Design the sequence.
């Protein structure tokens, strides 16, 4: 009699513990899914290419080639966590690159040019934030206006490509520190530092906690006396600043600036952030997850290159993964709502 009573009680305790774990850690499930997909791709590619795929130089190049995208993804994470979107980041990256390259061509030192590029990005981000917060413009429309503005300003600077010869800017990309067969560039280190700072801001500051609160329920955040307006403005400023920094990195990566650079990059950034587990409705997500999403994106491009097929398959694969993760997000949100 006693044993039959203990067994159901034990089973109930296990189910209850599992329920608590899923409730508390549901936001990490998409991140783990992204990690699983990344690991599966690496293992599958290694097997398919008879062990010739996975090598330190190749893995190092993924960070090198996607440093600018990683920086953009950090800024985009802040905006999406508030329930917004920023379609301007690719155009801002292009414009700040054009403006910075023109200033360098005119003889200004890189120590002045780089902060100016970041300030230009922050200013455009602030303008988008003001439209969203104080003029009640939808983030999609406000950031679309910012995208057209930045793209137009890039063409105003120059219709042609501007070559960058400044040694300090080019040093960011050309200098490599080797650790055996592995290597890292200054742009890669800069991108990882941005990830670290973004993760710390979200996890351990009042600003970060308010970001989550605003994205979770903006009305409740207002009732709790949280600085909703200032937080949303700062989220777009962070995104714009990251876009300006990405302009510095991308200019160093290509060695030139061109007004058509960055077309479609905003969509790549959003895809990486969503694949990394950040909910499009806001309130749930992590910078680390966005980094994983960028690595998934970079790994897909690398595998497509190894296969020697058309690059359009990169878009097709990313589109399929994006659809999958949006469905996963909807399932998680629905299950969380039922548990409440």
Sequence:
């Amino acid at each position: 009699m006693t044993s039959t009573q203990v067994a159901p009680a034990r089973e109930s305790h296990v189910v209850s513990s599992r329920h608590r774990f899923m409730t508390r850690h549901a936001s990490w499930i998409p991140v783990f899914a992204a990690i699983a997909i990344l690991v599966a791709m690496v293992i599958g590619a290694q097997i398919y290419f008879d062990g010739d795929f996975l090598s330190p130089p190749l893995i190092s190049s993924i960070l090198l080639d996607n440093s600018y995208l990683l920086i953009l993804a950090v800024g985009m994470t802040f905006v999406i966590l508030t329930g917004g979107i920023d379609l301007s980041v690719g155009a801002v990256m292009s414009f700040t690159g054009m403006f910075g390259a023109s200033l360098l061509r005119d003889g200004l030192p890189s120590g002045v040019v780089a902060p100016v590029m970041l300030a230009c990005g922050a200013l455009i981000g602030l303008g988008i934030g003001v439209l969203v917060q104080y003029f009640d413009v939808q983030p999609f429309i406000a950031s679309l206006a910012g995208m057209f503005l930045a793209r137009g300003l890039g063409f105003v600077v120059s219709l042609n490509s501007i070559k960058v010869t400044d040694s300090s800017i080019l040093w960011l990309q050309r200098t490599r520190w080797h650790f055996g067969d592995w290597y890292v560039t200054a742009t890669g280190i800069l991108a990882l530092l941005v990830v670290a700072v973004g993760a710390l801001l979200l996890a351990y500051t009042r600003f970060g906690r308010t970001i989550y609160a605003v994205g979770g329920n903006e009305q409740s955040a207002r009732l709790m006396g949280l600085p909703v307006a200032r937080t949303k403005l700062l989220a777009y400023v962070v995104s714009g600043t990251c876009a300006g920094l990405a302009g510095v990195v991308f200019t160093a990566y290509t060695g030139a600036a061109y007004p058509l650079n960055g077309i479609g990059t905003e969509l790549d950034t959003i895809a990486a952030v969503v694949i990394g587990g950040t909910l499009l409705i806001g309130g749930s997500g992590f910078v680390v997850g966005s980094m994983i999403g960028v690595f998934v994106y970079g790994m897909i491009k690398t595998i497509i290159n190894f296969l020697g097929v058309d690059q359009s398959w990169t878009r097709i694969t990313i589109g399929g993964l994006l659809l999958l993760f949006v469905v996963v997000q909807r399932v998680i949100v629905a299950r969380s709502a039922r548990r409440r």
